[in-house]
Design brief:
CATH architecture of one domain: 3-Layer(aba) Sandwich
Strand order of the largest sheet: 2-1-3-4-5-10
Number of strands: 12
CATH topology of one domain: Rossmann fold
Distance between the termini: 37 Å
CATH class of one domain: Alpha Beta
Strand content: 5-15%
Radius of gyration: 19 Å
C-alpha cells in the first residue's frame, strides 16, 4: 500500500484490454491518483503532446502499456504503421519522462520480440539470438527498442525503467473483432457463431501445429504491479504461465467449452506464425515473486462467459 500511496501514476493504454485490469490492480494496491489519458486527448507519437501529457498529470510513475496491436492478419496488413506507431510512442515517452524527472517507468514489451526459432522454453538471454517471426517482426522489433532505450538511459542517465515481456494474453474485455483479434478471442467468436448458426464445420487458420503459451490478463496485471514495486534492474523479465498448448488442441478445447459439436477444418494457406512459444518464468519469480495463479480452463470459461454476456 505504502509504495503507491499518494503517488501520481500515469497508465498509457489504461482504457485498453490490459490497461483496464492493471488500473483495477493498482486500485487494489492502494493507488488513488491514476491517470489514463486516451489517444484522442494526447497522441503519444507527437513529442509535444507527450510533454503536455506529463505537464498535466505530473506523474511520478509511468506504466507504458499503450500499443498498436493485432493478430497475424493485422500485422501482415499494417507492418509499417505497427512499427512506426509503437516505436515513436516509446521513444518520445521515455525521453520526455527522463527529462521531466519521472521516478520510475515500467515498459511493457511483447513476446513477438523473441527470435523465430528460440529454444523452448524462451529464456531472456535468448532475446538477441536471431530475427523475430516475419509476420510480426516490425511490431516486435519496435517494442524491443524500448529495452534498448531503457538500458541505455539507465547506463547514461541513471533513469529507473524496467522492461517486461508478457506472453500472449487472454481474458474478459479482450478484442473480439475478427479483423484484428488474437487467437483465443478469434476462436471463441468463431465457435459461438458456428454453434448458433448450426454450422457443420469451423475453419481455423494454419495447420494447428504451432504452439502457444497464454497468460490470464489478471495475472499479467498483478505481475506488472509487482515488478514496478519490487524490481529495479536493467534486464528484461518474462511474464508467463509456463504452459504450452498446440493451436489444434486449443481450438478443440474452445470449441468444446463453447458447445460447438461440428468438425474443425484447417486452412493451411494461412500462416501458423512462430512455430513454438513457451516462456521460462524463473526470473520473475526470483526477482519479484511473481507466479501465475489462474488455471487455463478456468480462464477460458470466464472469457467465454464475458463474451457471451457482452457481445452486443
Amino acid at each position: 500500500m505504502s509504495f503507491w500511496q499518494n503517488k501520481s501514476v500515469l497508465v498509457t493504454g489504461g482504457s485498453g484490454f490490459l490497461g483496464y485490469h492493471v488500473v483495477a490492480e493498482l486500485q487494489r494496491h492502494g493507488a488513488t491518483r491514476i491517470h489514463t489519458p486516451r489517444s484522442k486527448e494526447f497522441d503519444l507519437r507527437d513529442k509535444d503532446q507527450v510533454k503536455a501529457c506529463l505537464q498535466r498529470f505530473q506523474p511520478e510513475i509511468i506504466l507504458h502499456l499503450a500499443a498498436v496491436v493485432g493478430g497475424i492478419g493485422a500485422n501482415r496488413k499494417h507492418p509499417g504503421s505497427f512499427f512506426y506507431d509503437n516505436a515513436t510512442m516509446g521513444i518520445h515517452l521515455m525521453e520526455e519522462a527522463r527529462l521531466f524527472g519521472v521516478a520510475k517507468m515500467t515498459a511493457v514489451g511483447t513476446i513477438c520480440a523473441y527470435p523465430k526459432f528460440t529454444p523452448v522454453p524462451f529464456r531472456e538471454e535468448e532475446l538477441w539470438n536471431g530475427y523475430p517471426e516475419e509476420t510480426n517482426a516490425p511490431y516486435g522489433l519496435a517494442k524491443k527498442m524500448l529495452l534498448v532505450q531503457s538500458q541505455a538511459y539507465r547506463q547514461e542517465y541513471g533513469f529507473d525503467s524496467i522492461y517486461l515481456l508478457p506472453v500472449n494474453l487472454y481474458g474478459p474485455r479482450d478484442n473480439f473483432n475478427p479483423e484484428s483479434s488474437h487467437v483465443i478471442p478469434a476462436l471463441i467468436r468463431k465457435a459461438i457463431e458456428a454453434r448458433e448458426s448450426g454450422a457443420a464445420e469451423m475453419v481455423c487458420w494454419g495447420t494447428g501445429s504451432a504452439t502457444r503459451e497464454f497468460l490470464y490478463v489478471d495475472d499479467c496485471a498483478r505481475g506488472i504491479v509487482m515488478a514496478t514495486e519490487r524490481y529495479n534492474g536493467s534486464e528484461p523479465v518474462n511474464l508467463g504461465s509456463g504452459m504450452e498448448i498446440s493451436i489444434k488442441d486449443l481450438s478443440q478445447q474452445i470449441a468444446d467449452l463453447c458447445g460447438f459439436k461440428g468438425r474443425l477444418v484447417w486452412d493451411a494457406t494461412k500462416p501458423d506464425g512462430q512455430p513454438r512459444r513457451c516462456l521460462n518464468t524463473q526470473r520473475a519469480e526470483k526477482l519479484f515473486g511473481f507466479k501465475a495463479r489462474t488455471a487455463f480452463a478456468d480462464g477460458l470459461r470466464t472469457t467465454i462467459d464475458w463474451y457471451v454476456n457482452n457481445r452486443s
